Amino acid sequence: MAIEKKLIGVDLGGTTVKFAILTETGEIQQKWSIETNVLDEGSHIVPDIIDSINHHIQLFDMTADQFSGIGMGSPGTVDRANGTVIGAYNLNWKTLQNVQSEIEAGTQITFAIDNDANVAALGERWKGAGEDDDEVAFITLGTGVGGGIIANGKLVHGVAGAGGEIGHITVEPNGYMCTCGKRGCLEQYASATGVVRVARDMAEEFAGQSKLKEMLDDGQEITSKLVFDLAKDNDALGKMVVDRVSYYLGLACGNLGNMLNPAYIVIGGGVSAAGTFLLDQVTKYFKQFSFPTVRSSTSLKLAQLGNEAGVIGAASLARQFIK
Amino acid sequence: MAIEKKLIGVDLGGTTVKFAILTETGEIQQKWSIETNVLDEGSHIVPDIIDSINHHIQLFDMTADQFSGIGMGSPGTVDRANGTVIGAYNLNWKTLQNVQSEIEAGTQITFAIDNDANVAALGERWKGAGEDDDEVAFITLGTGVGGGIIANGKLVHGVAGAGGEIGHITVEPNGYMCTCGKRGCLEQYASATGVVRVARDMAEEFAGQSKLKEMLDDGQEITSKLVFDLAKDNDALGKMVVDRVSYYLGLACGNLGNMLNPAYIVIGGGVSAAGTFLLDQVTKYFKQFSFPTVRSSTSLKLAQLGNEAGVIGAASLARQFIK
């Protein structure tokens, strides 16, 4: 009887590297994490990953040939064909990193890589809110806004890997300047810092009674979580800010739907912790901005896997190696 | 020696049905067309198509087994799996039409169907401006605005067939009411009637010297072609209208690019007869609204196949039957 092989998923981030061992059907059997050592131009990261994988394989009394493959999600610009990464600034990776060749040599396990937002999209699609559907879009609202699009069961990378750059959909043609150099990107309104920025700007023109307004005027530090919490508590300015943020998200989701008509648009990331309070308002605008067929066949959902989306999606990259 | 088989492409429209016989590599060898008889709830259409195919096969001294398959593009709501069409109002097809089963029974040739905009996209992708790339988006500017999206080499239909509804991207949240029931759809600004509508509205607030303004004030019939021709002749209002239309097209193309990063966004249809005069202005706004990677890797191009995109793309649907 053949023993079922396992998959390894690696979620590489600027502060931690998360690992998991999964069955080929996507059940997590073991997970652990290490700190990301970004010193010396990030030169310790890949060796640390190799050591940690080898150590845990030994710890669990396993061998390399019991694994079908390793998949990894990485920040920066990922070259999937060559297994390299460049320009991951939160890792101090400024020069080209030969991630695949080093990890394959160091672990003797076949390896695949994609960018972190795409990998999270694959995770939510496979084992989360995407219900393993062939048509799923994923938006993650965190420090930035990222995304991944799955159509006909495959990630859409586009011709230069910029497919799924949902954070850079233009939602306000003459809007805020984005770090990418153009104006009005969704990221400037719906990321954690974007929400705060919208709050500050709306506060300037707001005249009524509002705790949020008082805190801003008082120079207190505010967070997107605070904005949502106050809005839930009926704060007048807070509600206006959430409405504005939801409007932009709904417009972006509407146009995503009009182009791709996915079964699910899954919203994850820190800002989505606001839960159904956010989802319901985004859905209202999504319906306003979507074509009737899309309105009735594309659903907005909250992500379900939280932090585990990364390792699960990364592991799913290695499913291609299952024999 | 095996004789190379042929493909048949059928482009079903409200006034004519176009046919072509192609090699399996997409070279047109024969083409012809018949009038679309929409009388009696369009009940003559499918029999007429069958008769015309059989007649021409005989005429060219061929037999059914010399064809790999027939592909067809149709207006209305197409069910690809079942080979049916419903709600094609320009054909008077209000009830479900069993197109595939009838044509297969009538011709003894395997048959596949998709909607007309998707089929035109496949045509431009295969033998036109799309250069047979795996990542191509197609926008057709005609009476309406349609489109088709090819990602990873396959059409994106989405969960309910509304993938590629590029005409219903919201480009002006509080804009013109569309026939689809929502506001600000691209179709309301960039279709042939949309361009005229923009001209009429901008004329109301225009005070300078303009032949277009004079013609509108005089109650003369104007067309989108006239608007573009006058703009090319330096008409002040005409130039403003083309700029506005290009802005909306550039915004839609930018967001298409930001989501999908295709190699080419191909613009076809009657309005695109304005040629590079239109393309250059749309490209200017596309660059303004696209993420840097997209700006440098996604190109806007004019369609190259004209009326033949439909039959070529339709024939390409039958490539799946090549043995």
TrEMBL record, chains A, B:
Belongs to the ROK (NagC/XylR) family. GO terms for molecular function: ATP binding; glucokinase activity. One of its GO terms (biological process) is glycolytic process. Pfam families: ROK. NCBIfam families: ROK_glcA_fam (TIGR00744). Transmembrane segments: none annotated. This is Glucokinase. InterPro entries: ATPase_NBD (IPR043129), ROK (IPR000600), ROK_cs (IPR049874), ROK_glcA (IPR004654).
